[in-house]
Design a protein that fits this description.
Shape: flat
Strand content: under 5%
Distance between the termini: 54 Å
Number of helices: 7
Length: 198
């Protein structure tokens, strides 16, 4: 059961990160094109600015959950780095509950914002894109954060009950694991090069 839940979290993680990377790529291309057009040809399109803004905002909200899963959020980790095993699992449960409470408030606020945009019929300035669609990423992203926090609580409870190993608490995306392996490989190569130079 725990493995199925973890696989679901990993799949959802990959999908959301993929969407965010696509959005960031589009945003980067639009920003580059806007700079070239503005400074090279003295042409400016407001649509490109909107595309950049909306894709970055969407990527940030959609990746909040996967970042929770991989411990990627900025945090004070003086205490959590010293905790091991069940103590760390309890700490993760407390942090996840706090994340759920805050995300639930943002879901409520986001739904109110989307409803207000629907009633007003407000559209973006240049693309005439309905703003309710733009702001809908807030409740969706925070609902996904709640889902990932619940998955994290489930993983921590599995550790507390002995159904999973404490090693499973540190979940990192495949990209993060590959990056860490590359960094370690580079550090080892650097140490070997220093040793040979002496």
């Amino acid at each position: 059961m725990f493995e199925r839940i973890d696989r679901f979290g990993a799949l959802l993680d990959r999908v959301l990160v993929g969407i965010a990377v696509l959005g960031l790529s589009i945003s980067t291309l639009c920003a580059f094109a806007a700079v070239v057009l503005r400074y090279g040809f003295r042409i400016s399109f407001d649509e490109m600015d909107e595309i950049c803004r909306y894709t970055i905002m969407s990527g940030a909200y959609l990746c909040a959950g996967p970042l929770l899963r991989s411990n990627g959020h900025v945090s004070l980790d003086v205490l959590s780095n010293r905790l091991k095993g069940k103590a760390k699992a309890i700490h993760r449960i407390i942090c996840s509950v706090v994340a759920i409470v805050i995300a639930a408030m943002l879901v409520k606020w986001g739904i109110d914002l989307v409803q207000m945009m629907l009633k007003s019929g407000l559209r973006s300035a240049s693309m005439l894109f309905p703003m309710w669609a733009v702001y809908s990423v807030v409740p969706i992203g925070m609902a996904l954060l709640i889902l990932f926090a619940l998955l994290d609580i489930g993983k921590s409870l599995a550790i507390l009950t002995g159904k999973a190993s404490a090693d499973n608490l540190e979940t990192k995306s495949g990209e993060a694991q590959e990056a860490e392996a590359l960094v370690k490989k580079a550090e080892n190569a650097e140490l070997e090069a220093e040793g040979e130079a002496r």
